[in-house]
Each structure stands twice: as structure tokens, then as C-alpha cells.
Design brief:
By secondary structure, this protein is of the alpha+beta class. It contains 17 helices and 19 strands. The model has no long low-confidence stretch (mean pLDDT 87). The structure holds adenosine-5'-diphosphate. It comes from Methylobacterium trifolii.
Length: 542
């Protein structure tokens, strides 16, 4: 007889389960979306893996099956996907592989009630949401390519069991023993409604099984393939929500079809909200690549990293269905698609930037990411620069480089900027005194990327960008409101004395016209890194 192994959950899982079950109670219906999405992903992965490995191909009639059993009070979700080995079960369902509970619970506390469900998706705790409706869950799985099957079981109370099991085909079967108050999930009409609501855009077939009869539940409409005129705003929004597990409204919806040299359909969204997981930590675009409707991968990097906030689908005819990972990296068709999609997104941003008010929300959410494009993408640099927005010493609203240039004083040759970590401190910085006094505008930069991109851009409309903390700026040709004061008597002696006293600390001490109210200011050398860059280098220990 087989032995049953008992294991404790990883330390964070217990707390996470508690949070998921209690904090998200009112949204518990989303458990079905989570389980169906996992099942569909597993089938996509099996299809993809079968192309390049010995894993057996996905059977043509493979489905996700959702089967309620009123007598047993169970709900079963099964798939013919890639499956999980014993180790996979322990790792995926017994620990929290990715972001920990702490980050999750902090975000959960901070989030508004209506935003909470999207946290589940974003933090990858999807499977555990099963415990919102079930007091016991068993998962029987057989990894494609393996003969043995294993069953994982838990009541969500601190431990789980693993035992050898059987499953005639690869895939995963999840049995939920429903809680006393979760009867509704035994009703076919309720399940049907949920699948339509959450999973209609999943292209893997989903069936609801009752009394041995199977009813197809999703239409698998590849919405992106339909003409725009046949799609309602609500359908776009629903799709947006399902594709990225989003709960907000998209700020921009881009839907187009390229024909001729290059054939693809794209349906892309710029989110209306910042994701809960800081996008700064992500690196890659997750836009999904489909070939003739079939999902291939979300790791094709269809957009550059500095557009990684864009979500959606690109579906092409120009690649074979059995495209491999190696091929994805080298095929010229994909490179052309990337270029076309990137250009289209940028032109949308350029157009929308003309509406200052409408653009502000986007900029505050994703502006710092876009700025990375200036130093990462020299081909696109010139197209990105006009879209950038800044705080400035001269205006209260966001402003762009073109507007800055239009406001430049006669004789002003450079675009001035000041970088610091602290937006508030910037406004009060003594570095600004001489510029304010002469009516010279200074861009105030406080995003962490701001230390890096101005140097890469170097010029805009032929005007060099100059950090005002760098030495060698001569303001004397601009009339000062405070009046040009001659250095007081004895200033030369004072400068010499300070220079002697600080000989080991600074390379020079000079009289400056950059100050009005303050007595001294630190300045960087003429050619080298500006003050913010020096601070960063010091922090990095260089
Ligand atoms: P996420 O899906 O966000 O990674 P989950 O908690 O939903 O988080 O699932 C954890 C992991 O368990 C998944 O990443 C996947 O590797 C595995 N998994 C879950 N369900 C299935 C399934 N039906 N078939 C195969 N693997 C699965």
C-alpha cells in the first residue's frame, strides 16, 4: 500500500492562505478564473513543449473540463496540460515561489476593496484562491512525458499531503470539496456565467460537464481578429481585464491589422492604473504572441523594455505554428513585427501627448519607464524625446522639451536641468537662485532614471542639455533682477582662504553669479559627472 507523506507549508503560505480566504472573501468567485487560467496555460505549455521535446503532443480534443457533482458536493477542474511532477507539486503548491506574503499583504492593506482581486493575479497566488470556496482541495497530476502521477491534498490549514496516484493521461485534475456556503458553484448556469465573464477570450476550449454531457462554455473568440466595427467598448474592456488580470479601464486601446509585406493583428492596451507590483522591477514586455490564433508565448519581447507597461496580443500569419524559442530570437519576420508595433505605440503616445490633461495620468503612471528608452534605444531616442514631460521652475503644470525651447530667453543656448532624489527639495534648491533671478527656466528631475538619460539625449532641437550643478555655466550675459553686485571688498582673500581650508575636499572655489540669497553652493566640475551622478557613484561605492 502507498504511503502518504505529510509536509508543512512554507512559512509564508499559511499566512497567505489566511489573507486570501478572508480579505478577498467578497470576490471569491474569481477562484474559477484562476483555476481555468492555470489549466489553459498548462495546455498551451504542453503544446509548445511538444514542439521541441519528447513531451507527447496535446490531443486534438483537449479541453479544460469543469464538472460539478451535487451529490458529492465537489467541483472538479481538469486539464490535459503539461502536468506537475511530485517536485512541481511541492514547489508550486507548497511554497510561495515568487513575491512573498509581506509584499502581498502590504499591497492588500493599501488597496481599495475593488482593486483587491487583481492583486491575486499579480502576485501569483492564484491557486490558493481555491480555499475561498473549498475546505479541502486535492490535485492529481501527471507530468507530460512521465508515467507516474501524484496527488497533493490539503485543507489549507498548515500542511499538505503527497501520495502516489494514477492518471491515465498527462494533465491535472483539481477537486474542490466545497464549503457549506458555496453551493452556488454546483449550479451549471452559475459556472457557465463565470466562464463567459472571465474566460471567453481563452482560446483553449472549456466545457462544463453535467450528467456526462459536455457543454462548450467559452466561445474562444479571438477578439483581436474581428473588425473594429464589430466590437463594442465593453468587449474591449472585458478583454483587457482578462488579458492582464486587470480591473481598471485601459487608458489607451490600440487595435489594428497590418496587411501586405507583414501580416498581423494587434490589440494592445496601455493600463489606466499603475500595477501593484512596481513595473520598475519588471524587465520584459509580456505582450502575448499568437500564430493564427494559437497562443505561442508571452516571452517573445514584442515590445522594447521601455514600453513594458503595454499589454495585449499580437497574432501573425508570418510565423509557422511550430515556431521554436531559438527561432523566436532570430527570425526576421518577428523583428519586423516588433519594429512596426513599437512604432505604432509611439505614434499613439505622440498623438495623445498633445492633450496635456489627458496625458498627465499616463505620464504619472509610466513616464519614468518611457524615459529609459532615451538611453536604451538610440534608434527611437528622437521619437521619444518630444513625448517626455517634466516639472519645471517656470510653470506649475507638466511641460515638454519643445515648450521649454519655445520659452527660452534670447541668447540662452542650453536647456537647463537639475536632478535630485527629492522632488520637494528641488524646488527649494539654492542651485536655482541665480537662474530664477535671471528668468531662466530649469527642468526639475526627480525620477531615479533622471541621472542617466539627459546625457544620452545630449541635445534637443539642437540645444544641448546642461545640468546646472556642473561648473562652467556663465550667467553674466543675462540681466539679473537683483542687480549685478560687484564682489564685496576682500572677496578674493576670502576665496583664497576657503580654498586653502578645503584643499583636500574640493578642487576649486569660485565667485559665482548663480546665487542670490545663499552664500555658497556645491558645484560639479565642468566636464565630469553632475552632482546627482556623483551621489549615485558614491552610493555604489565608486
Ligand atoms: P501563478 O499561476 O500566478 O504562477 P498559481 O498559484 O496559480 O500562480 O500557480 C502556481 C504554479 O503552479 C503555476 O505557475 C504553475 O506552474 C503550477 N500550476 C498551477 N495549476 C496548474 C495546472 N493546472 N497544470 C500545471 N501546472 C499548474
Amino acid at each position: 500500500s502507498e504511503t502518504v507523506e505529510r509536509h508543512e507549508f512554507g512559512a509564508e503560505v499559511g499566512r497567505l492562505l489566511d489573507l486570501v480566504v478572508h480579505a478577498l472573501y467578497s470576490d471569491r468567485e474569481i477562484f474559477l478564473r484562476e483555476l481555468v487560467a492555470n489549466a489553459a496555460d498548462a495546455m498551451d505549455r504542453r503544446r509548445f513543449e511538444a514542439l521541441t521535446s519528447a513531451a507527447s503532443a496535446l490531443p486534438p480534443d483537449a479541453k479544460v473540463r469543469i464538472a460539478p457533482d451535487k451529490a458529492a458536493r465537489t467541483l472538479t477542474v481538469s486539464d490535459a496540460g503539461i502536468g506537475m511532477s511530485k517536485e512541481d507539486l511541492a514547489q508550486n503548491l507548497g511554497t510561495i515561489a515568487r513575491s512573498g506574503t509581506r509584499a502581498f499583504s502590504q499591497s492588500l492593506d493599501a488597496a481599495k476593496a475593488e482593486d483587491r482581486p487583481s492583486l491575486i493575479g499579480q502576485f501569483g497566488v492564484g491557486f490558493y484562491s481555491a480555499f475561498m470556496v473549498a475546505d479541502r482541495v486535492s490535485v492529481t497530476s501527471r507530468r507530460a512525458g512521465a508515467d507516474e502521477a501524484w496527488t497533493w491534498g490539503s485543507d489549507g490549514q498548515g500542511s499538505y499531503t503527497l501520495e502516489a496516484s494514477e492518471r491515465p493521461e498527462p494533465g491535472t485534475t483539481i477537486v474542490l470539496h466545497l464549503k457549506a456556503d458555496a453551493d452556488e458553484y454546483l449550479e451549471t448556469y452559475r459556472l457557465d456565467h463565470l466562464v463567459r465573464k472571465w474566460a471567453d477570450f481563452i482560446t483553449v476550449p472549456i466545457a462544463i460537464v453535467q450528467d456526462g454531457k459536455e457543454e462548450s462554455a467559452n466561445q474562444g473568440t479571438a477578439l483581436w481578429r474581428k473588425p473594429k466595427s464589430e466590437i463594442t467598448p465593453e468587449q474591449y474592456e472585458e478583454f483587457y481585464r482578462s488579458v492582464g488580470m486587470n480591473f481598471d479601464k485601459p487608458w489607451a486601446t490600440l487595435h489594428w491589422r497590418a496587411e501586405g509585406q507583414l501580416e498581423f493583428s494587434a490589440l494592445l492596451f496601455v493600463p489606466g492604473m499603475k500595477p501593484f507590483q512596481p513595473i520598475e522591477n519588471e524587465r520584459q514586455s509580456k505582450v502575448r504572441l499568437h500564430v493564427r490564433r494559437m497562443f505561442i508565448t508571452d516571452e517573445a519581447e514584442l515590445l522594447p523594455t521601455w514600453l513594458r507597461f503595454v499589454q495585449g496580443v499580437v497574432d501573425t500569419e508570418d510565423l509557422p505554428l511550430n515556431v521554436s524559442r531559438e527561432m523566436l530570437q532570430s527570425t526576421p519576420a518577428l523583428a519586423r513585427i516588433r519594429r512596426a508595433v513599437t512604432g505604432r505605440v509611439l505614434s499613439e503616445l505622440t498623438t495623445r501627448a498633445k492633450d496635456a490633461e489627458g496625458f498627465q495620468g499616463f505620464w504619472e503612471n509610466f513616464g519614468p519607464v518611457l524615459k529609459e528608452g532615451i538611453y536604451e534605444d538610440h534608434e527611437r531616442r528622437a521619437e521619444i524625446a518630444p513625448v517626455l514631460r517634466f516639472r519645471s521652475s517656470a510653470v506649475d503644470s507638466w511641460t515638454g522639451l519643445s515648450d521649454y525651447v519655445a520659452r527660452m530667453k534670447d541668447g540662452q543656448e542650453a536647456i537647463y536641468y537639475l536632478v535630485s532624489d527629492d522632488a520637494e527639495a528641488l524646488k527649494a534648491s539654492p542651485q536655482l537662485e541665480g537662474f530664477r533671478d535671471r528668468g531662466l527656466e530649469v527642468l526639475l528631475l526627480s525620477d531615479h532614471v533622471d541621472a542617466f538619460w539627459p546625457e544620452s539625449l545630449s541635445r534637443f532641437e539642437d540645444k544641448p542639455l546642461r545640468s546646472i550643478t556642473q561648473g562652467g555655466l556663465d550667467l553674466s550675459k543675462f540681466a539679473s533682477e537683483a542687480g549685478e553686485a560687484e564682489g564685496p571688498e576682500g572677496i578674493d582673500a576670502l576665496v583664497a582662504a576657503i580654498k586653502a581650508a578645503l584643499a583636500d575636499e574640493v578642487s576649486d572655489v569660485r565667485v559665482t553669479d548663480r546665487l542670490v540669497g545663499s552664500a555658497v553652493v556645491l558645484s560639479a566640475g565642468t566636464g565630469g559627472p553632475d552632482l546627482q551622478m556623483q551621489r549615485l557613484l558614491r552610493r555604489a561605492g565608486r
